[in-house]
Design brief:
The chain contains twelve helices and ten strands. By secondary structure, it is α/β, with parallel strands linked by helices. The protein has two domains: about 140 residues, Glycogen Phosphorylase B (Rossmann fold); about 160 residues, Rossmann fold, CATH 3.40.50. The strands form two sheets. The chain has a five-stranded parallel β-sheet with strand order 3-2-1-4-5, with no helix packed on it. Strands 7-6-8-9-10 form a five-stranded parallel β-sheet, with helices on both faces.
Length: about 325
């Protein structure tokens, strides 16, 4: 199957949504390399038209925002879709009334997981709803006749972002990424353990990925001998930090350690090995999609919060990940 045109319907995409959906976009393009893929946000905006637009160049051909339908069945199809016909329409959400509205887009095939794929022209082998968004999206690929496990090419990032990343992390050293932050600090493994992990690295340079909410951690991280803080160094050089730059940096890392956070999903998008740390949140639902992933849960060490994860366990997981990853 090689559809000429595919419409993907979403409600809206914030940055976190876009990072979660990015692996799906890559798999979609790998399955239908010649199709014209149109991404439609029916109820709001999409970061694929703004901050994450460089990441989907070559993956998404057209992004429609604020299309104005999907809330009610009576919503009229707006000008961007009126009169257009698609070979395949993929509805990524599962609200039945919204699926009925999306199904009004003219199509040859329609795929939706709503009501156990009741409205869908195809079904996956197992139609039970998975917990993770990524697994739900892979069901749609399978229902549409694609291969959810097809290999995908590395993200093609803008040359400027790649050049900035090379300047911040020059070729030569073996780099290990450490992302100690999270939107909720209850999801953060203690900073002093990240620092101890960095100090214990041998034959690798620690790279701390700190967001704007972790400014108060800068001094502790810079105190680690040889440590690099590329996003802070970028700002000092007049380079604007961004998700695209972070992913370009991630492509230069051999392995990384991150909490359940947006930073973890950005590091995963760089296709290196990732050790992902979980406490109060559920990895079955929120684990990032990485080519090589090790998940450590606080519950496996007798606790619920992040400080239950011992330093020794993270060190062992990181060393194993580095051993299984060729120097980059």
């Amino acid at each position: 199957m090689n559809d000429d045109s595919i419409l993907v319907y979403v409600g809206l995409d914030l940055v976190g949504d876009g990072l979660l959906k990015l692996p799906f976009v890559r798999i979609l393009r790998a399955n239908w390399p010649k199709a014209r893929i149109v991404w439609c946000a029916g109820k709001g905006s999409s970061v694929f038209a703004s901050s994450l637009r460089p990441l989907v160049a070559g993956l998404i051909d057209e992004t429609i925002e604020n299309a104005g339908f999907g809330s009610r069945l009576s919503d009229a199809l707006g000008r961007p879709l009126a009169g257009r016909t698609f070979d395949l329409v993929i509805d990524t959400q599962r609200r039945f009334a919204t699926s009925l509205a999306v199904r009004r887009v003219r199509h040859r095939r329609f795929v939706s997981g709503a009501a156990g794929f009741l409205l869908s022209g195809g079904r996956p082998a197992n139609a039970d709803k998975p917990r993770s968004m990524h697994a739900q999206l892979l069901q749609l690929v399978e229902a549409a006749g694609g291969n959810p496990a097809i290999p995908v090419a590395p993200l093609s990032l803008p040359a400027e972002a790649q050049a900035d990343a090379s300047a911040l992390l020059p070729p030569g050293p073996r780099y290990v990424g450490l992302a100690p932050g999270a939107g909720n600090r209850a999801k953060s493994w203690p900073l002093d353990r990240f620092v101890a992990l960095a100090r214990g690295l041998r034959d690798a340079t620690p790279v701390f990925i700190l967001g704007p909410d972790e400014r108060d951690w800068t001094d502790a991280c810079r105190a680690v001998p040889g440590a690099i803080l590329p996003l802070q160094d970028a700002a000092a050089r007049g380079i604007a930090p961004s998700p695209v730059l972070t992913i370009a940096l991630a492509q230069r890392l051999t392995a990384s350690v991150a909490n359940d956070s947006g930073g973890g999903h950005m590091l995963a998008a760089g296709d290196g090995a990732l050790v992902s740390l979980f406490g109060p949140t559920d990895p079955a639902k929120f684990a990032p999609v990485a080519k090589s992933l090790v998940v450590l849960r606080a519950q496996d060490f007798g606790g619920e919060m992040m400080d239950a994860i011992p330093l020794e366990a993270v060190e062992a997981a990181l060393q194993s990940s580095m051993a299984g990853t060729a120097a980059r």
